[in-house]
Amino acid sequence: MKKLLLLSIAIIAFTFSSKSQNITCGSFCILNINNVDTAGSNTLDVTIYNGDSVFINYPIVVVTNSLGDTIANIDTLYYFFGQLAGDTVAHTIPTSVDSISAGFTGTVYLDDPTDSLPACAYSYPMTCSVGINELASNVSFNIYPNPATTIINLDLSELNNTATTIKLYDVTGKMVKTVSTTEKTLAIDRGDLRSGIYFVQVLVADKVLTKKIVLE
What we know:
Elements: H1 2-15, E1 28-38, E2 41-50, E3 60-65, E4 70-72, E5 88-94, E6 106-111, E7 120-124, E8 142-144, E9 151-155, E10 164-170, E11 175-181, E12 185-189, E13 196-204, E14 207-215
Antiparallel strand pairs: 1-2, 2-5, 3-4, 3-6, 6-7, 8-9, 9-12, 10-11, 10-13, 13-14
């Protein structure tokens, strides 16, 4: 299955190769991998720092374990949401495992299908050698419930910051809500937002963390 997924990445990248700047693999870093349970399905949050000068148009993330087996693969929903230069983003992708151990080792493949170069491969855990003004690798935020119906609750207690800006985007990349807070928890009313996939972007200091939310 791993070979088929990587072949798919290569084919997509070739198809769109003339439409994008090439990303520099050495400018990215895999900061952390966390296991997340969301309403009957398991996901991995793969936190990636983009230290490159280019925008990743359509991030594709694949995670394999130490045996080379694919445990988390392409989340096609990210075809609608990229990663800016300088961003730290938690890419939430489906996984086939119930949990990962604290000492998990494996490989993370990162690709942009509009890039003409092969997918970047990173051994995890990795030491970041790029110049990062980064958040600690275990810093994140939590969304609950997910899926949500009327209220989106955010737990920001790990961020240790006095001022946080939260932006909500739809799958086309259009910003539909923005909120600023100094609190450690926040409840956002969905208002008239339609059911579907949205992305919650948390801006803390000069970094950005992003997670996916489903509105029913």
